[in-house]
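User: Could you check the structure of this?
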Amino acid sequence: MRKWGPLVAVSLGTFMLLLDVTIVTVALPDMASSLDASLSSLQWVIDVYALALAALLLGAGAGADKAGRRKFYAAGTVLFAGASLACGLAGDAGTLIAMRALQGVGAAAMFATTLPLLGAAYQGRDRSVALGVWGAVNGAAAALGPILGGLLTEGFGWRWIFFVNLPVSAAAVWLTVRVVPESKSPAGGRTDWAGTALFALFAGTLTYGAVNAGTDGWGDSRTLLSFAASAAALLVFVVVESRTERPLMDLSLLRRPAFVGVLVAALALNSAAFGVLPYTSIWLQTLLDMSPVTGGLALVPLALASFVTSALGGRFLHGVSQRLLICGGLLLIAAGLFGQALLDADSDWTTLVAGLVVTGIGVGLVSPALASAALASVPQRSSGMATGAMNTMRQLGYAVSIAVFGTLATSRMADSLHSTPEARALAGGAAGSLRGRVPDEALHSAFASGLNGAAVAAGALAVVAGLAVFALVRTPKTAPAQVRTNVAVPVERA
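Assistant: Sure, the predicted structure tokens are below.
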């Protein structure tokens, strides 16, 4: 336990925080019914967690470098557990959303310190083993999210998707305190909290504008004001970062085309591959009357294909250009999404299977290659910042895409039903309230049209990102052995 205890402690926390990104997807219809939640509320239940994780990840990594990574990881886990308890006890959608945001704050403190803690605890071959296990845990979280969410929701109720975090958090904190060594960055300096606050403001107002557009329209004054505030926050962030001695984000890295390509791919990966899935889950359960378990199992082909591809890719695709893997993977994601956009009023879950598998293969190619490309695209001293920026873009892309694709899907449903309120009710999982007032065939046709439109938009995003990667990313087929060993675990900043 002394030797592998740190790996177990870090893996437990990583599994939980990544599981909570997607575990709520299968529970959305039950949440909507239990809390009388609107579509925008359901979007925020998913979005606010990913948003807090994305907005605070780089700042949390910098703070942990200075204050102590073990301390930050343990404190983040405690906060995550307390927020999970509050989520499970929430009596209304507003409270649930607020506590999900607090969960995201804790998750950011945890995720920002996972790789540096492993880097400090292990060296040589042990480090390679630890990184392999940590990567497998990432894949397992994605694969088990829909299944575990369905089992807990159907067997015990949706609140248990949060309560299950408590014993796991307790074990992670206990192990962290007992066996994880403390580590700090040897470099001193101030933490860029101004940059952290400005980036959080940018991300928050951007997401709010996208969510509000689905409710009140793209031309609504609040939507436009939110986007204007987001643009202003981004502009001020750039000015502040360019003048700060130890910036949250070294803007000079953006002069490197390969690094820009990596960020574009990271943003598109989670957006395209996973942004439509919450609405697919609602369709499965409210229109096809599938249970949370069977609805979760219907989405497993994507995660399973991703997991298998990642595992086999490391063995059989060694030496293949990262540029080709990322570009090809994004184009496969696009092909899978176009394959999912074939629904009609008579479709069932089997219509999605082929598209989900192809999308999963694409994800399995892109995810590991993206991390390698990020490290290869910047100097070694900036490796932590590069991986932190990549993970930030992945979570931010997911948060924004939930809102944007939800708006697109609702718009298509409204056109089909000739009623925006009914479309919002349908997209929000309230199909039961419409039955009797709207023919079932019309409901099925409207939801199919909405999902098709969102899937096509997501596929187009993946195509554009794939072409951008092909144009921008120029990395060697394999990084030198020394660079791969030293850089794979960024210790300066996660």
